[in-house]
Write a structure and sequence with these properties.
By secondary structure, the chain is α+β, with helices and mostly antiparallel strands. The protein has 13 helices and 17 strands.
Length: about 475
């Protein structure tokens, strides 16, 4: 065992899981948690792994839901967070909901009772000192101002976001190609583009008027208590706020039709258009350009399905706008979550650009394993990209397209979803007799992806950790 401990900053779900994984590998950990000496706007207790919002870990269905699959993979990988959740689950149908107080107490007791883990209750107010040669920063969306500023200075002013403007993301196979077409404005060929880089959804004048009416009348989500002082930026206004400024505002903003011609209508220019931009390297997910919103999720689904071509849209992520702290991870982090500019620093949890309790803990699990492998002097073997763990890691560290085609940052936090997984080989689908259309087709595809993921995960787990460098 190395004399120096591995330092983990942040005692949330990601930091707690990272510390546990390091100890399981036989390495010493110093877990730094600033509460109760410095509190946040959201936390109410000093317990580790406190659940500050919902008590739900979402679906626990490993066969047809990506987050349920992630649950199962984490269980098989020895996750403390999943063990605590399973020990304190509450009735919630197909979802995994927990008694939040007992859950946090379980995690706190496990970590403080582990001889290889020491917990230090103090703020790390700035970058870790140089003597800390192996560090995981897992401070979440409410990172302290002093540490946030230090990270921002180290990574660059534009690489750490404090305001999370999220546009919805749609699964490609749910977009109707008979009503949409691919074209860039004025057929412009940008860096890496072809001139047909966007999917365009056209609206007539009547369709546009109905869309605006529904948008103005829809229910909105209120800002959370600690977001109240966070102003909207003119560059990322919610679409409903734009609509309130005048009925034509959207048509001269994100829904402007200039430079586009609809081949389904003899090449005419539509009255308005919604553009979707490719969001991942696999080409399975497409982002609704400029559609950040504070509409309630059910309202988003109802209203956005009024858009021609999106009547059957399946959303990998719905829109939002809230205060957050996250890195431009695909640019800044390597495949083992190390900061390229200063590799002694790893990042984990929501600060890397993942959404959700389970996703944050999953990245903590992987960061802890990678840090322990480095301390042991062996190469860390990441999970296969066909697994939920590997797909989430891939999105954060390189699977996301790094820009919008014109050099602007486009990386946004995301939950795990099947759109992040590599496609199934055609022979596999054919052999399984997958239905060709409808919901049955989607359900069969998910089962095949889940079966492949768990089989590949078991192979990955079977590799001895101390021989991964060979």
């Amino acid at each position: 065992m190395h004399h120096n401990p591995i330092h983990v900053i942040g005692g949330g779900l990601a930091g707690s899981e990272a510390a546990w994984q390091i100890a399981r590998a036989g390495q010493r950990v110093l877990l730094h948690e600033m509460r109760p000496h410095r509190r946040t706007e959201a936390h109410k207790t000093e317990a580790l792994a406190e659940l500050v919002c919902s008590n739900s870990f979402r679906s626990d269905d490993a066969a047809s839901n990506a987050v349920g699959l992630l649950h199962e993979e984490m269980r098989r990988a020895g996750s403390l967070i999943m063990a605590a959740a399973d020990a304190h689950k509450l009735p919630a149908g197909a979802a995994l909901a927990v008694d939040r107080e007992h859950f946090s107490q379980h995690v706190t007791a496990a970590l403080t009772g582990e001889p290889l883990i020491a917990v230090e209750r103090a703020e790390v107010a700035g970058l870790p000192p140089p003597a800390w040669d192996n560090v995981i920063i897992a401070t979440g969306p409410l990172t302290s101002p002093a540490l946030s500023s230090a990270i921002q200075r180290l990574t660059g002013e534009g690489e750490l976001a404090f305001f999370d403007a999220i546009a919805p993301i749609v699964h490609l196979d749910s977009i109707d190609p008979d009503l949409t077409w691919r074209q860039s404005r004025y057929d412009k060929v940008g860096p890496g583009g072809t001139g047909a880089d966007y999917i365009n959804c056209p609206l007539s004048k009547a369709e546009y008027e109905v869309f605006v009416d529904q948008l103005l009348a829809a229910e909105k989500t209120s800002l959370r208590q600690w977001e109240g002082s966070t102003p909207y930026f003119e560059g990322c206004l919610p679409i409903e706020v734009m609509a309130e400024r005048g009925r034509e505002t959207l048509r001269f903003g994100p829904m402007k039709p200039v430079g586009l011609s609809n081949p389904h209508r003899g090449g005419e220019r539509p009255y308005a258009v919604v553009q979707l931009r490719q969001d991942n390297a696999l080409g399975t997910l497409w982002n609704m350009v400029g559609f950040q919103t504070k509409l309630k999720h059910a309202e988003q689904v109802r209203i956005f399905r009024l858009i021609p071509g999106l009547a059957e849209a399946a959303f990998a992520r719905l829109g939002g706008l809230h205060r957050n702290t996250f890195l431009n991870s695909p640019k800044l982090l390597d495949a083992s979550l190390r900061l390229r500019r200063e590799p002694r620093l790893r990042f984990a949890g929501q600060i890397t650009g993942c959404e959700g309790y389970v996703e944050s803990a999953a990245i903590g699990l992987l960061a802890g394993q990678a840090a322990a492998a480095e301390r042991l002097g062996v190469r860390w073997l990441p999970p296969p990209p066909t697994t939920a763990l590997g797909a989430l890691l891939g999105h954060i560290t390189g699977g996301h397209l790094a820009s919008d085609g014109e050099g602007a940052r486009s990386f946004q936090p995301m939950n795990i979803n099947f759109g992040l997984f590599p496609a199934l080989p055609a022979p596999t689908e054919a052999a399984a007799g997958r239905p060709s259309k409808g919901k049955a087709r989607g359900a069969a595809r998910k089962r095949l992806l889940a079966d492949r993921a768990l089989a590949d995960l078991d192979c990955w787990l079977a590799v001895p950790r101390n021989t991964a460098a060979e």
